[in-house]
Amino acid sequence: MQLDVAFMPSGNLSHDLEAVKRAEQLGFDAVWVTEAAHNPFFPLTLAAKETSRIRLGAQGALAFPRSPMVTAQIAWDLARQSEGRFALGLGARTPTPIDGALNGEWEDTLGRMREYIESLRAIWNTFQTDARLRYRGQYYRFRLMAPFFNPGPISHPAIPIYLDGVNPEMRWLAAETCQGLHAAELHTVAYLRDMVLPAIDEGLRTANRSRSEFTLVLPILVVSGANEVEQQRAAKTVRERIAYCAAIPEHRRIMAQHGWESLAHELITLARDKRWNEMRNAITDDIIEEIAIVTEPRHVYSRIMERYDGLADRVCLLLHAGSIELCEAIAAGRDSF
After folding, report:
1. Does 327 have pLDDT greater than 90?
2. Structural domain tally of the chain?
């Protein structure tokens, strides 16, 4: 099981680049940059030239607000610059009770995402082979690629595509058509066994693919720190993240599975009223223990192995770009495991 790290860009490209370079030095297998307040592709562009071994990926990059042509070009350039180390992770993120700020058409998310993936591959094929571009779907149509806009072939044209998998349909689509899946960060072992893995198996059967052809990445929330202050700060951050995710209707299945339905309804109401502090405080220590890894830095890796070994191909620590010291401690714990 490989150990990755993910962080949200800080807005300071130099700082983000140093975080990626340090992750490579510490022996992490991949860095995933998530999309939130900042574009994930900017830090990856710098990292592609300043690193040599570590795999680089965008995680949850917003698909629908970007044309497949735009995303295809960005991914192509990153695959070229990284010499094949780049993976494209896409998210279908739709408006929630918390934020409806993103523009786009959201009906038939599954069908739209399927066509998005097909469009990307059609465009990449034209980039690589100069074949005539012809893609016609219900939502996307591409029929022209002028030579002026064709970046030409690269050495590693098979760019892996990963999907974010909050709902079972998207997990199934990922297993049928993509190279991997980022499971939702709001998960438990029981939820993975009962909901996530069966959907993956179904998608693989549909496409007549083996499990070895697919990669499941588990994002791991971590509550850890070198001292009590850092531990409390991490706990606050994780409470906020769990509260946010639990207020999204797509997470209702895990909330129901663990008997947290009333909490989910409460969080949705609080979110609509923008009562953020109350949302965070509604997340109990028991819930955090069920979802996150809560321990000293030197024991994080061993706790991850105890909980997830055999369930996933990669685990991904969800940290921020300033968590270098924590990364160092976790890496040291892995080396001594």
Report:
1. no
2. 1
